[in-house]
Design a protein that fits this description.
Shape of chain B: globular
Order of helices and strands of chain B: HHHHEEHHHHHHHHHHHHHEEHHHHHHH
Shape of chain A: globular
CATH topology of the largest domain in chain A: Rossmann fold
Largest sheet of chain A: 7 strands, mixed
Radius of gyration of chain A: 21 Å
Oligomer: heterodimer
Distance between the termini of chain B: 59 Å
Helix content of chain A: 40-55%
Strand content of chain A: 15-25%
Number of domains of chain B: 2
Order of helices and strands of chain A: HEHEHEHEEHEHEHEHEHEHHHEEEEEE
Strand order of the largest sheet of chain B: 1-2
Number of helices of chain B: 24
CATH superfamily of the largest domain in chain A: Response regulator
Helix content of chain B: over 70%
Largest sheet of chain B: 2 strands, antiparallel
Structural class of chain B: mainly alpha
CATH class of the largest domain in chain A: Alpha Beta
Chain lengths: 376, 611
């Protein structure tokens, strides 16, 4: 990991040098990226970088307007993301902004982008209020309003469960997801027996699980990220709770299996990105990514890759100006995407509909497609 | 819910003991250090993380078996402990009591950052090296590792207890704890004793990091803060410096959390832990197991105030700086202005803290909570109450003044370390109440769509507007604070700080004056939080988090405690310089930690001098 971080830094320096060189030749078309390269979320910024570089190396050679990016490290801290926003708005070469990673950092910067008439594309911002910040706030983040009913359906019609105990992360994302999940489960005729919210960095879930157990569910739903999910599932096993487990797409990561070990075998999950999916876009992306970085991509890589392809498409289809991007993003259609198949925005919500969910199960320490009726 | 079911209660009890067992390993080391050095070691959780990563590296790269892994961790962490004592604490001998505490905060920051730089923030799995058999106990199971952790905790506490009571070196340790100068005169090599104690306690902390990492099969650098907090709460419950008490305190904390979850739900767990902390500090500051009403071993005086002549800045220079700052928008560089506005907002926080920590001598480690109260008060008044922004912001300042003072008021009788720990706990409580009181604060979803700054219909949402407003408010607050410090009130504040007993005998009632200081400080910080909320348009319970409290403290010490110009300078330096050195971003928090350490060691009076 150290090596790759160094490589990322070296990449940043190299990009910077390249920028200075080409600035003399002609004004390049730039996208600004505000994201964490250091601090507690640094790994996500590093993942973005890998995917952005891969995407640009594929689209730039044939593009009329080759894109370059400026990555400013915000540490996902609102104090820094607002300063970065001013920097980007001031820099007339920047036609579009991508990020930030967390909702507080992104949404604090939104008023500045809105005033500066620069599109802020928060591709990880699932907070329902993010795109309500103004008509320059757009997102391709998976909508929980779509994902949660999908998860509830997996538990109810897929696994035939009727009484679900929910464990969710107590953050903006987790609470929004939980509310949507509960509503969807009720609409499908199931009962939510208990909903327990936990804090980030918590490690001990034994008492939480006793509460869940005593509410007599026949299924446990996890609305968490992979690291916490691994810990929770391990403790579910030590308490010997027999119920099947379903989990949201954010647990999909090779780290779930590394951190969860044998305990995570049998966990059901849904995901928008699955490297073994035969679809052509997915296979091409997985092959290119693995060749370039010598490891398998995950959902964050796929989302970031899609985002940079979208940015290049917007610039080349509608022109390299801020106004053209703002007009274009509302009507763009048929942009190839690993996650969505094709990207098209709903101009009302400024989000993308129609993510394609795959149902998976962890079996023998690997993610595999889930087969209906197979014993779990 | 069959929470009343006896079987379930048995399970909650077992779970409480299991997690309390884990806290105990941390608390024993903290208690030992406190017992000898009268120091709450805020770097303890960081050593725990170092131990976890060294164990992980030994297993992963060298393939060591468990005994050898433990040996690696013990040796490495003991060396870290010796380093902390030798470099961070021994040079501070003879300085104020709070200096070593601040020093351990700086060391903790540095260690956490070094671990994060070397191993990356990614979570890692620690291979389990303990047999995986489990015993059925009630509705759940406990494993070999639970028993190993309990055994190590109990053996460590037992050995330490006998060591302290019945061996000559143990007597030396206790003599050093009671009066290190007297011990030295009796021929005790105090430095060696301290070094041994730090080595033992740090080794213990490292082992707990390793075992807890195996227990959850997961380690990350961010787990140090939580570990330090839980260890300190256990320590306070058990009684500072009471090694067997620390184990009892840990188990009580574990049970309290587990029963709290049983009664109210998972998201209340930490709220229970911190409320318990405050209750203990107020009613049993010596811990549950201390029979005598021995006064807390704190000096009557002794804030972190190094005597220094404040640097005198001529009035015309100040006026020129203000005029220059006011004209900055003419440059048209909005990035510069945004950084300027951030600096001004943080300077208000620093003004508040420099008054409370410097002038009155109450080192607060939870000052970010005042920003949160101000931000939420103004945001909620404007959003849910429909108040105009120009009215909501000053109202938020007043609310923060009242609420902040009321929250800290019960802690006024505490001194020294106890104040710092209490304010730390209160800061966490405020964040957790914001998170859980969904009906008022919108809970975890946060406050979105907070209206932008505007005064009497004039839109100040542009960066120039934000900058001018923040600057104007800052200048007003700073001038007012200077005026107050030069008045009778300022003299009374400093009198309380310098000798509270003498002040009281002259008829200066400590509590009322402390309340005035917190009220004014709360007002300044509340305004800062309120303006920030309107600039950001979205805040949640994490926007104003614990690292901001530490950053504010660094600003204040950098500028010179109690010094108004110093606070503004400290805030400007620590906000603007990192922007100037963006390439060094990765090392930013490391640099904050080093700045804090070096200041405490070499220039405790700060850049501008203390007042």
């Amino acid at each position: 990991m150290m090596l790759s971080r160094r490589a990322a830094l070296a990449g940043a320096v190299a990009t910077g040098a390249a920028l200075r060189r080409s600035a003399r030749a002609a004004d390049p078309v730039l996208v600004g990226i505000s994201g964490p390269l250091t601090g507690p979320n640094a790994q996500y910024g590093a993942q973005w970088k890998d995917s952005f570089d891969l995407a640009l190396s594929e689209v730039n050679p044939t593009a009329k307007y080759p894109l370059q990016y400026v990555f400013e490290d915000s540490q996902s801290d609102p104090r820094q993301s607002v300063a970065i926003a001013q920097k980007f708005v001031n820099d007339s070469r920047i036609v579009m902004e991508l990020g930030d990673f967390s909702s507080p950092a992104s949404m604090a910067a939104s008023p500045i982008y809105q005033r500066g008439k620069l599109v802020q594309f928060g591709f990880t911002n699932s907070h329902p209020d993010f795109t309500k910040g103004g008509d320059y706030m757009w997102s391709s983040s998976i909508s929980q309003a779509e994902e949660q009913p999908g998860l509830a359906d997996f538990a109810i019609s897929g696994l035939g469960r009727r009484k679900i105990g929910v464990i969710h992360l107590n953050t903006d994302w987790g609470v929004t997801s939980k509310n949507l999940f509960v509503a969807a489960a009720k609409a499908k005729g199931a009962e939510v027996t208990a909903a327990e919210g936990f804090l980030p960095n918590e490690r001990d879930f034994r008492s939480t699980l006793v509460r869940i157990r005593d509410s007599n569910p026949d299924c446990i739903a996890l609305l968490a990220y992979y690291a916490d999910a691994a810990t929770i599932v391990r403790q579910i096993r030590t308490l010997a709770l027999p119920q099947p487990i379903v989990a949201v797409s954010s647990v999909y990561s090779p780290k779930l299996i590394e951190l969860g070990g044998e305990a995570v075998n049998g966990v059901h999950l849904i995901t928008t990105f699955f490297p073994d999916e035969p679809r052509a876009e997915v296979q091409r992306f997985v092959k290119a990514f693995t060749e370039k970085y010598n490891r398998a991509p995950d959902t964050f890589n796929a989302t970031a890759y899609d985002t940079m392809v979208l940015a290049s498409t917007l610039v080349n289809r509608y022109g390299p100006t801020r106004a053209a991007i703002r007009d274009g993003i509302a009507k763009v259609d048929d942009v190839p995407s690993v996650i969505f198949g094709k990207i098209k925005f709903d101009p009302q919500t400024r989000r993308v509909a129609g993510a394609q969910y795959k149902r998976l199960i962890v079996k023998d320490g690997r993610f595999q497609m889930w087969q209906p009726g197979a014993p779990s | 819910m069959n929470a009343s079911d006896l079987g379930a209660w048995f399970d909650y009890t077992v779970n409480g003991f299991v997690i309390g067992n884990i806290y105990a390993l941390l608390a024993v080391g903290l208690a030992l250090i406190y017992g000898v050095s009268n120091l709450v070691n805020f770097a303890h959780g960081s050593v725990y993380v170092v131990g976890a990563y060294i164990g992980w590296a030994a297993i992963t790269y060298l393939g060591t078996p468990l005994p050898l892994t433990i040996l690696c961790v013990v040796v490495a962490c003991a060396l870290v402990g010796i380093g902390i004592e030798r470099l961070g604490l021994r040079p501070l001998h003879g300085s104020s009591r709070i200096a070593p505490l601040l020093s351990t905060i700086g060391i903790g920051l540095v260690l956490d950052q070094v671990v994060q730089l070397v191993f990356s923030p990614d979570p890692r799995a620690v291979p389990m090296q303990v047999p995986e058999w489990r015993i059925q106990l009630g509705g759940g199971t406990i494993g070999a590792l639970d028993l190993l952790i309990a055994a190590i905790g109990l053996i460590a506490a037992g050995v330490l207890y006998f060591f302290l009571r019945f061996t000559k070196l143990g007597w030396a340790v206790r003599a050093t704890a009671q009066d290190s100068d007297a011990a030295q005169q009796m021929g005790v090599d105090v430095n060696r004793v301290n070094m041994v104690v730090f080595a033992i306690a740090s080794a213990l902390s490292g082992i707990s990091g390793l075992l807890v990492g195996m227990y959850y099969n997961q380690i990350n650098p961010a787990m140090s803060f939580e570990a330090t907090l839980k260890g300190i709460v256990s320590l306070i419950i058990g009684g500072l410096g009471n090694v067997p008490g620390a184990i009892g305190g840990s188990l009580i904390l574990g049970l309290t959390e587990s029963y709290g979850i049983a009664l109210f739900g998972t998201s209340y767990r930490n709220l229970f832990a911190f409320v318990l902390l405050i209750v203990m500090l107020l009613f049993r500051p010596n811990g549950l197991f201390e029979r005598g009403r021995r006064l807390p071993p704190e000096p009557l005086t002794g804030t972190f105030i190094a005597r220094a002549r404040p640097l005198h800045v001529p009035r015309w220079v100040m006026a020129a700086v203000i005029v220059f700052a006011a004209l900055l928008p003419l440059t048209g560089n909005s990035y510069l202005l945004q950084v300027g506005a951030n600096s001004a907002l943080y300077a208000m926080l620093a003004l508040s803290l420099t008054l409370v920590a410097g002038t009155v001598g109450q080192i607060s480690l939870g000052h970010a909570a005042l920003l949160a109260i101000g931000g939420y008060a103004s945001g909620l008044l404007a959003l849910d109450g429909g108040w105009p922004v120009a009215v909501a912001i000053p109202a938020a300042g007043l609310i923060t003044a009242a609420l902040g003072t009321a929250l800290v008021f019960p802690a006024f009788r505490l001194t020294g370390h106890y104040v710092s720990i209490a304010t730390l706990g209160i800061g966490e409580i405020v964040a957790l109440v914001i998170l859980n009181w969904t009906g008022l604060t919108h809970g975890a979803v946060g406050l979105g769509g907070i209206p932008p700054l505007e005064v009497l219909g004039v839109d100040l949402g542009s960066v120039e507007g934000t900058y001018w407003l923040s600057l104007a408010v800052l200048v007003l607050l700073a001038l007012l604070q200077v005026r107050l410090l030069n008045s009778h009130l300022g003299r009374s504040w400093r009198a309380i700080r310098d000798d509270s007993v003498a002040a009281r005998s002259y008829g200066v009632s400590g509590d009322r004056y402390k309340a005035l200081a917190f009220a004014y400080g709360g007002f300044a910080a509340g305004i800062s939080g309120a303006i920030t909320a309107h600039v950001y348009s979205y805040i949640n319970h994490e926007t104003f988090n614990a690292p901001i409290s530490i950053l504010a403290l660094t600003m204040v010490i950098l500028g010179g405690l109690g010094n108004v110009t110093g606070a503004v300078l400290g805030a400007t330096l620590l906000i603007a310089l990192p922007e100037a050195f963006r390439m060094l971003a990765e090392y930013r928090i490391l640099i904050y930690g080093l700045v804090l350490l070096l200041l405490i060691r070499f220039r405790p009076q700060g850049v501008m001098g203390t007042v």
